[in-house]
């Protein structure tokens, strides 16, 4: 482990429990690199996670952390931000945790524009609980609960966040590590709800069921299918069918909810 990031980990909790070749460690590395570049105070930074493979990330980080109930990471994070708005709050969640049982909390956190930096580890499957398909599993892909192919259409998580009111939305992959670190930094600097969707790989559950090869092969797939918005615009409809855009997808300004709540408190405090 690099000396400059070692301070951010609970070394006694390592090695981690993720499968060999899992992309979650890459996401975690990019997160702590972003925190280091931002020079954030560890005593004023909070990590909140739910349940699942991605949610185990908070336990390895040497910050104040909350490992919460399934789908409720954003609800707990909202409470932390309301109680102590001066804290830096990051939410670490998976595609199942965030978009299935946690979907309602997700859209309302985005709608309220609460100043949270939410990192979704999107490996397209419930990895920890048996390899079931999630709301992010692509159509026709296999899982333990869709052995003949998934009939459902997946969410476009970025578009969902934008429609719900998020003021910063970005997407990267575990192949594009520098871009991922930069997006986390930009998301943190946004004064409002930020979503960073990370297309990561689960070689054990998703990869095996869908014959995607080794973890290295899955990283090469990300390299070949994640494209910039400019490149995407120049592709034909047929070429776009198996590509997705990476980079900053959306940025706008809107009132931040906890700041507006504080203004309301101050308005009526003297009455």
Automatic annotation (TrEMBL):
Pfam families reported in the protein's UniProt record: TPP_enzyme_C
GO biological process: cellular respiration
Keywords, ordered alphabetically: Oxidoreductase
Alphabetized GO MF terms: oxidoreductase activity, acting on the aldehyde or oxo group of donors, iron-sulfur protein as acceptor; thiamine pyrophosphate binding
Superkingdom classification of source: Bacteria
InterPro entries the UniProt entry points to: 2-oxoacid:Fd_oxidoreductase (IPR051457), THDP-binding (IPR029061), TPP_enzyme_TPP-bd (IPR011766)
Annotated Thiamine pyrophosphate enzyme TPP-binding domain residues: 53-198
Full protein name: 2-oxoglutarate ferredoxin oxidoreductase subunit beta
């Amino acid at each position: 482990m690099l000396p400059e990031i070692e301070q951010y980990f609970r070394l006694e909790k390592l090695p981690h429990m993720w499968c060999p070749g899992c992309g979650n460690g890459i996401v975690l590395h990019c997160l702590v690199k972003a925190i280091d570049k931002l020079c954030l105070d560890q005593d004023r930074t909070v990590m909140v996670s739910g349940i699942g493979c991605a949610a185990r990330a908070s336990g390895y980080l040497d910050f104040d952390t909350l490992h919460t109930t399934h789908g409720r990471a954003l609800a707990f994070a909202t409470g932390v931000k309301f109680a102590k708005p001066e804290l830096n709050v990051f939410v670490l969640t998976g595609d199942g945790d965030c978009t299935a049982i946690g979907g309602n909390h997700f859209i309302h956190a985005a709608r309220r524009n609460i100043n949270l930096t939410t990192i979704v580890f999107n490996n397209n499957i419930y990895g920890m609980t048996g390899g079931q398909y999630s709301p992010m599993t692509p159509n026709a892909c296999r899982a333990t609960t869709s052995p003949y192919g998934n009939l459902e259409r997946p969410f476009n998580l970025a578009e969902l966040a934008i429609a719900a009111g998020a003021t910063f939305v970005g997407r990267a992959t575990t192949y594009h590590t520098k871009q991922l670190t930069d997006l986390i930094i930009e998301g943190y600097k946004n004064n409002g709800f930020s979503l960073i969707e990370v297309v990561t790989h689960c070689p054990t559950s998703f990869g095996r069921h869908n014959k995607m090869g080794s973890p290295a092969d899955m990283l090469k797939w990300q390299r070949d299918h994640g494209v910039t918005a400019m490149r995407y615009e120049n592709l034909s409809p047929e070429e776009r069918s198996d590509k997705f855009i990476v980079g900053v997808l959306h940025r706008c300004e809107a009132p931040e909810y906890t700041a507006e709540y504080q203004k309301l408190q101050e308005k009526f405090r003297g009455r």
